[in-house]
Write a structure and sequence with these properties.
About 50% of the residues are buried. The longest helix is centred in the middle third of the chain and has 14 residues. α3 packs across α4. The chain has about 300 residues and is α/β, with parallel strands linked by helices. The protein is built from nine helices and 15 strands. Strands 3, 4, 5, 6, 7, 14 and 15 form a seven-stranded mixed beta sheet that branches. The chain has a six-stranded parallel beta sheet with strand order 10-9-8-11-12-13, sandwiched between helices. It has a two-stranded antiparallel sheet with strand order 1-2. The two termini are about 15 Å apart. It is globular and about 55 Å long.
């Protein structure tokens, strides 16, 4: 089978396609024929070595998977032929023609949800959902979301609105109408306005940008406000500051998938590229201003 791998850490050009034997699922595992995966910020950080939990290369990137089960190990809770999706911790990665994963980490793909949208949801959707949970957001609160048009941010805007928040989101000029269409009541063009001059007494900040947004974000919090960051930021030592890292959850990803299938939440796919163009995809994610998600499909 084909996989994307790398022998060294570095830029997008370290990624290449290789052929390896197809794995077999063990007890409680399933083997998925990949329908689609998606590119997340953590993939780029693992590739370049700023995140190290995969160890040293060679390894295969990818956590999001959507596809059809072609083999199931003893005790697996899903069956051959089922279409599943989710965020999976797996030795094979998901930039792979076939993916071995623990069956309990995957949810059945709900009717009305295709592989492309299913693959775009898990890591981004779980990050957004879990960030709101960690913040303890309540209906009626004012939520400021940095990176509102990005892969995580555009889902967080919609989920926060569904929970009854008054949402302010930051983005560049050409994404402001997009955010209004997702339900943001206030949008801030960060190329023209410093957000910390436009808002104050914010109940929750969700930061999907990081960097120098940390201290400035804490400065606009209400006394009992909460800051939740998904990217490294210059946050002060403050009990209101929290960090979120997405955790796999089949039940949670199923709920997000059902919202998308029903049209209650929209997942925006900026573009779709085959895994044969994975280096180009990573370069785009680093250098282009993507709106929503970049989805990867099997080799053409």
């Amino acid at each position: 089978m084909k996989i994307v791998t790398q022998q060294t850490l570095g830029g997008p050009d370290v990624l290449y396609t290789a052929e390896v034997p197809r794995p077999e699922p063990g007890p409680g595992q399933i083997l998925i024929a990949l329908g689609a995966t998606s590119l997340n910020t953590v993939d780029r950080k693992l590739r370049e070595g700023t995140v190290t939990h995969l160890g040293t290369p060679p390894f295969t990137l990818g956590f999001d998977v959507a596809g059809r089960i072609v083999a199931a190990g003893e005790g697996a809770i899903h069956a051959v032929g089922d279409h599943v999706f989710g965020m999976v911790p797996t030795a094979t990665g998901s930039y792979s023609e076939f993916v071995v994963a623990p069956a309990r980490a995957l949810a059945l793909r709900p009717p009305g949800l295709d592989d492309l949208r299913a693959a775009a949801l898990p890591t981004a959707g779980l990050t957004a959902w879990q960030a709101l949970d960690l913040a303890g957001m309540r209906a009626g609160e004012h939520v400021l979301i940095h990176g509102g048009s990005g892969g995580v941010g555009h889902l967080a805007v919609q989920l926060a609105v569904r929970r009854g928040a008054r949402v302010t989101a930051t983005a560049r000029t050409d994404n402001l109408e997009f955010l209004r269409g997702l339900g943001a009541q206030q949008v801030i063009d960060y190329t023209a306005t410093a957000f910390d001059t436009a808002v104050s007494e914010v109940d929750v900040v969700l930061d999907f940008v990081g960097g120098d947004h940390g201290r400035r974000s804490v400065s606009v919090l209400a006394a009992d406000g909460r800051y939740v960051g998904a990217q490294a930021a210059d946050t002060p030592d403050d009990p209101r500051v929290h960090a979120v890292t997405a955790r796999p959850s089949a039940s949670m990803v199923r709920r997000i998938g059902e919202l998308v299938a029903k049209g209650s939440v929209r997942v925006h796919i900026d573009r779709v590229l085959p895994l044969s163009d994975v280096a180009h995809a990573h370069a785009l994610a680093e250098n282009a201003r993507l709106r929503g998600k970049l989805v990867l499909t099997p080799w053409t």
